[in-house]
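INTERNAL AUDIT FORM
Audit reference: QA-55
Scope: verify that the stored structure record matches its stored sequence.
Auditor: D.O.
Record contents follow.
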Amino acid sequence: MLEVSRIEEVCGILEKLGPTGVMQVAKLMRPTVTNKKVGSQNASKYCARAADIGLITVNDDEDNHIYTVNPNWRKIMAGEETAIKPINRRISMFSFAPSIFHLMHN
């Protein structure tokens, strides 16, 4: 449950700031249970997980990833809407060839 609230927190920060990098997101995240600052690695983890489920998008063209919140992120979190994400990797008929070849020769 803590993970979900952190992802919601990241989305809320991006909603207020607009497109921004992970360092700015980390600075604005609330402290951990032990009252420590959230580091950029953890903020990056939450951003990556939010991006995986379509709540935010990432601009990978720059050295510093720029995150942008999906305008419908609240509806997606509530289950009222689904995020349609493009497939990142092209799959060909040859993707499975080594495993099929292995099965044929055993």
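Auditor finding: record pair retrieved intact. The first strand starts at residue 56 and ends at 59.
Action required: none
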